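In the current project phase, we have settled on a layout for protein records. A sample record is reproduced below.
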Amino acid sequence: SDVLLKLGRKDDATEAILDALQLQPQLPYGLLYLGKIQLLAGDLDRAKQSLARLRQSNIGSWDRDTIPLLQGEIALFEKRYDAAERFFRHASAVRMIWDRDPNDLRENLARVALRRRAFQRCEAITKAMLTYRKNDRVGTLLRARCADAAGRRDDARLAYARYIELMKGADANLRDLLFARRRLQALKALAPAK
C-alpha cells in the first residue's frame, strides 16, 4: 500500500489496506495508512475515526509509533504545526532503537516547516538529511520543494534535476517523480535566456 500511495494510486492503495484490515481488523500499520489516505482525500472525519480504531487496536512494541504518527498527520492537516512536530518527535522516540532512522523524523519535521513556510528551517533540516545520507531521495525532493516555495529558482532547478537523476530506473509514473519533472520544466521555462 505504501508503494501504491507513492505511485499516486490512492484507490488501489485503499483497496489493499481494506483487504489487509479484513483479515486483521485492528492491524496498526493498516489503520495508519488508511488514515493517511483519508487525509489525502481531504476526509478529516474518517481519518479521526481511523485514529480512534487505532487507539483501540492491539499495539505492540513494534508499532508503538503508529498512533503519534497518525496524530501528527492529522495535526499537520489541521495546520496545528507545533502539535504536529510534537507528535512526530514522540513517534520517533517510541520506535524500537534499532529501527530508528534519523531521516524519518527529519522528513516529517521538514514537511511541517514547508507547510508553515519556515523555509530556512526546512533548508536546515533537508541539509541535515543529505549530510546523513548523501543520496537521500526524499531529502532531495523536500530540498527542491523548499527552494521552489521560497522562490529560489536556481536551487530548486538543481535539486529537482538531482532528484530525477536519483530516481533513474524507478517507475516513471511515481507521483513525486511526475511532480518533479513538471516543476523542473516550468522552472526551466522561467529561466532567462542566455
